[in-house]
Specification:
This protein is 85% helix and 0% strand. By secondary structure, it is mainly alpha-helical. It has a single domain, classed as ABC transporter involved in vitamin B12 uptake, BtuC. The longest helix has 45 residues. The chain is globular. It starts with a helix and ends with a helix.
Length: 291
Amino acid sequence: MGLSGYLALPFAQHALIAGTLIAIICGVIGPFVIIRQMAFAVHGAAELSFTGAAAGLVVASNPVAGALIGSVVVAGVIGAMGERPRERDSSIGVVLAAGLGLGVLLLSHYQGFASAATSILFGDIFGISTGQIVLMVALAVVVLVAMGTIYRPLLFSSIDPELAEAAGVRGRLLGIIFLVLLAVTVTEAAQVVGTLLVLSLAITPAAAASRLATAPLAVTGISVAIALGATDGGLLLSLGGTTVPPTVFVTGLSFLAYVLARLIGPSLASRRRARLQAARAAEEDQPNSLE
């Protein structure tokens, strides 16, 4: 069966819809992960969503709901324990160690199929059901609306926390809200690439975008474009007659985009500096010409 034949099947359509939703929210939230130096928080939320997924699998045979509840609770706990990067990383390390041990214990009591357990770690994008699509659409809307609402104060607080605090921005509250939104995003992304490789969507596109642009909105737009290209492109490549799992293509394309951004970024930066210097020179010459 060719690619067009697969695209007519519900499982492929569900996968593309889910991948597109996940790519958009990862692309939007990723730049703030870079600015706020929260790569370890993404890793922690992903690994601890495994604990919640294991609990959901054992209790109700629903790993997605368990992962969502567990990651949101943990995000709130981490946000309450520390806002500064050093405090936050220490808190994540402590909670992560205990959470992973609990997850292994819970998974050892699971008596079902092994594929259900391994999909938590490596993702199962082609197993997305209609009910999960509805849930993912709802969660994506919540994340995007919330990010749109707090975008400006969160950006201010991320770039200059002390000045933002002096201006009355509630940085700690925004940090906790962002952590919760990050936890939801990570849980969604884990369904594509699994908890072990979630960094490839939550961080890599934004890291690549930050090499190509400096304006926050431009970085966000490029981040979304890279995430979409990696996710949907990886799914299409996987459906194109190969036996390679889509996770391999998604992570590979994401990494390739980052490598290209590293190569192209310096020349773009030098061009921006040249334009800025030319603009400054023009401004300095203008008063002299008026005299």
